[in-house]
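in:
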């Protein structure tokens, strides 16, 4: 039990507390903050105000795992498509004769204007319009200017820039009584000006001539060229393979495209390009490296597709620029063109562009076939042939040097080594020093052979030049369209020479094969032997010799050790041949013309001949692809 004194004190304290609580409803003591009592129960006020008990809900383990692993789902409101704006039709308001008074028009709409007399200046009317562009993303503008009577209207588009008004496009393509069009012009935000005015000498306007200027705003379409792209800085990027259609806006228009080559490995791929111009028009395609060095420039025939299937991908250039333009000095081109660019695999030993000059000539190796294209009109492929590295025996060091006439139809053999000089000039060639030892009659020296396969629709020509690419060594044109060419037995080059392959006709889809090789010369005439003093010697037990008149205008001369009573020369098929018989190098004793495939025999003085020269009859411009054959019947010789 508590003491009596302590019980009294406890009662007084409780009584005082109760009194303070009762008085707090009217006035709160200073320094005391009232707070709402916390609801620690699961009771919530119901609709009627009476408390309701909310039963706790527990998640299963699977639901808890899903709520932990899956991100919270956020509902994003769908964008509202902008309403299609109706075209705004407005009438021209004068005065608008200069840019300062330009009439503001809607980017999407039509302006109804007129060209009338200009009383202030005494000349024709000029109409200026202003476009204020503020777009969320780039779009293209289509401009269509209708005719105004028989006037020749011009349409100019300017843009206001940091350096003032810049002329972007000037159109005057259609002529009198026709309108002008500017399709697919890529707009950027800013201010533009349109200038409409008549052109021509002594333009006279007695009464207003009405026109309409229509502006249509569209989304840019994939594969359609958009202006401005007049230089490499504004070139449109092409992701290969690519196909794009475009329009030449004016005679001096240029459309630039940039082909991305970052993923193309040099030396393993080639760039194939096709350009189809509008019907009845021609275009020019130029291809440049990333540093704007021109690789090649080719003009198309009117309305004919240009195909360049073998553009080389050079190391160090991650992109190429392609420029499409009208021929210089040409007229405006109406209609669309198409440009296609793709990457194709490059086979080993394949001719690639550019190789259209002697400086760009590709190396042609012996006994290795090289394939290529004569893809377009005027295409030329140049090749470089180095002297072969032939190991000559030491005992050949004293062989006879080349003939002085080696410069005719073949590279100069005078600078060759002794062994190579014998092959170039031929054994026993005239003009050699008298003290030079006679060559071994059975000694053989290889000659050079160059063979080209035929391409359907193309008449090819092979031409040989000195290393400078200007000094001609021979022109070989034995076949016609679809037929090949051959350089049968040229003397071995002792210094580099170059070969030009060209052709008349067109077949971009077919390839040719060009191969060089060494051939044995035993029983063969050796070039150069165009003159009796340079004749190839027929010696020893040899009873026949073959040769080719493959070089246009070629003459082949053979020298006998002694006159023979009986010999025959059989011409190639399909050609007539003239055979001249000489007694010595300069005394002509008989000349006989043989028909195609018929043997030619000397009849009178030719039986004492020591030099026989054969050539094609008449003024043949082509050589013969098959050999002539000379046979000596030694059994009847005295």
């Amino acid at each position: 039990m508590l003491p009596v004194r302590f019980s009294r004190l406890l009662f007084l304290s409780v009584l005082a507390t109760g009194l303070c609580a009762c008085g707090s409803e009217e006035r709160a003591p200073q320094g005391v903050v009232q707070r709402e009592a916390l609801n620690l129960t699961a009771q919530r006020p119901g609709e009627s105000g009476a408390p309701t008990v909310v039963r706790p809900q527990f998640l299963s383990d699977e639901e808890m795992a899903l709520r932990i692993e899956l991100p919270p789902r956020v509902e994003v409101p769908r964008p509202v498509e902008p309403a299609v704006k109706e075209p705004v039709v407005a009438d021209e308001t004068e005065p608008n004769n200069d840019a300062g008074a330009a009439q503001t028009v809607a980017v999407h709409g039509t302006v109804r204007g007129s060209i009338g007399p200009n009383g202030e200046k005494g000349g024709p009317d000029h109409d200026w319009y202003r476009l204020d562009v503020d777009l969320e993303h780039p779009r293209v503008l289509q401009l269509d200017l209708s005719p105004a009577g028989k006037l020749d209207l011009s349409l100019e588009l300017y843009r206001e820039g940091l350096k003032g008004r810049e002329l972007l496009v000037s159109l005057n393509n259609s002529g009198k009584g026709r309108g002008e069009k500017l399709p697919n012009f890529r707009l950027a935000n800013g201010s533009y000006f349109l200038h409409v005015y008549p052109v021509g000498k002594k333009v006279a306007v007695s009464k207003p001539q009405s026109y309409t200027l229509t502006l249509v705003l569209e989304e840019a379409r994939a594969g359609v060229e958009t202006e401005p792209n007049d230089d490499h800085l504004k070139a449109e990027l092409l992701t290969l393979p690519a196909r794009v259609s475009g329009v030449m806006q004016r005679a001096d228009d240029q459309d630039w495209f940039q082909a991305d080559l970052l993923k193309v490995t040099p030396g393993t791929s080639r760039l194939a390009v096709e350009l189809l111009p509008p019907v009845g028009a021609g275009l020019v395609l130029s291809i440049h490296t990333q540093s704007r060095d021109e690789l090649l420039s080719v003009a198309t025939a009117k309305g004919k597709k240009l195909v360049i299937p073998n553009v080389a991908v050079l190391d160090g250039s991650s992109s190429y620029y392609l420029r499409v333009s009208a021929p210089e000095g040409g007229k405006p081109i109406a209609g669309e063109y198409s440009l296609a660019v793709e990457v194709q695999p490059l086979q080993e030993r394949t001719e690639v562009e550019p190789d259209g000059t002697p400086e760009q000539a590709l190396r042609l190796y012996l006994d290795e076939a090289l394939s290529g294209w004569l893809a377009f009109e005027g295409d030329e492929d140049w090749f470089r042939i180095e002297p072969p590295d032939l190991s000559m025996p030491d005992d050949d060091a004293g062989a006879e040097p080349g003939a002085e006439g080696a410069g005719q139809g073949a590279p100069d053999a005078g600078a060759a080594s002794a062994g190579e000089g014998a092959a170039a000039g031929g054994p026993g060639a005239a003009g050699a020093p008298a003290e030079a030892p006679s060559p071994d009659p059975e000694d053989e020296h290889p000659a050079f052979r160059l063979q080209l396969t035929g391409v359907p629709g193309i008449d090819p020509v092979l031409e040989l030049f000195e290393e400078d690419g200007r000094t001609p060594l021979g022109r070989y044109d034995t076949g016609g369209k679809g037929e090949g060419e051959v350089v049968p037995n040229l003397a071995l080059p002792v210094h580099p020479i170059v070969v030009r392959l060209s052709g008349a006709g067109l077949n971009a889809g077919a390839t040719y094969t060009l191969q060089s090789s060494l051939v044995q010369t035993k029983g063969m005439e050796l070039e150069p032997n165009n003159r009796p003093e340079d004749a190839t010697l027929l010696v020893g037990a040899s009873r026949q010799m073959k040769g080719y008149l493959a070089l246009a205008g070629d003459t082949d001369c053979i020298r006998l050790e002694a006159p023979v009573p009986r010999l025959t020369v059989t011409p190639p098929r399909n050609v007539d041949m003239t055979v001249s018989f000489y007694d010595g190098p300069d005394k002509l004793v008989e000349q006989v013309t043989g028909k195609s495939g018929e043997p030619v025999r000397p009849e009178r003085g030719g039986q004492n001949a020591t030099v026989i020269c054969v050539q094609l009859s008449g003024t043949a411009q082509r050589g013969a692809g098959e050999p002539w054959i000379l046979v000596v019947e030694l059994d009847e010789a005295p």
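note: Residues 14-26, 393-443 have pLDDT under 50 and may be disordered.
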